[in-house]
Write a structure and sequence with these properties.
- The protein has 2 domains: about 50 residues, no CATH class; about 35 residues, no CATH class.
- The protein is about 50% helix and about 5% strand.
- Strands 1-2 form a two-stranded parallel sheet.
- Strand 1, helix 4 and strand 2 form a beta-alpha-beta unit.
C-alpha cells in the first residue's frame, strides 16, 4: 500500500494504511505493524528536517502533554475469567502509575 509513497508525509501514509485495512480488520499484528510504520515515518521526517518529533506533533513551541495508558487485554476462557483478569490487570497498571487504561468490557446477555 505504501510503495512509492513519500516518507515525509506520515499523515497520508497513515490514512492510506487505515483505509486500506478496513476489510481485514485492525487488530493484532496488523495494527501493531501500522503503528510501527507510523512511528518510523515520523522519525524519518524529524531526522530529515533536523527537529525533534515532538516539534512536528505539537504546536512547535513546546511538547504536547500526552497521557499514557495501559492496554489491558482480558485473559481466560469464560466471562468471569475475563472480568477477573481485567480487574487484576487494572490494579497492576494503577500500581505502576498509569492513570488511564484501554480495555474491552464484555457483558453477558440475558436469555
Amino acid at each position: 500500500m505504501l510503495l512509492g509513497a513519500d516518507p515525509l508525509q506520515p499523515e497520508l501514509a497513515w490514512e492510506t494504511l487505515y483505509r486500506g485495512s478496513k476489510m481485514t480488520g485492525r487488530r493484532g499484528a496488523l495494527i501493531c505493524a501500522m503503528g510501527a510504520i507510523d512511528i518510523a515515518l515520523w522519525d524519518i521526517k524529524a531526522q530529515a528536517l533536523g527537529v525533534p518529533v515532538w516539534r512536528l506533533l505539537g504546536d512547535g513551541d513546546s511538547p504536547r502533554r500526552v497521557t499514557p495508558y495501559a492496554s489491558l487485554l482480558p485473559a481466560g476462557r469464560t466471562l468471569r475469567d475475563h472480568s477477573d483478569s481485567l480487574v487484576e490487570k487494572a490494579k497492576t497498571a494503577k500500581a505502576l502509575g498509569y492513570r488511564a487504561a484501554k480495555l474491552e468490557v464484555w457483558r453477558q446477555r440475558a436469555l
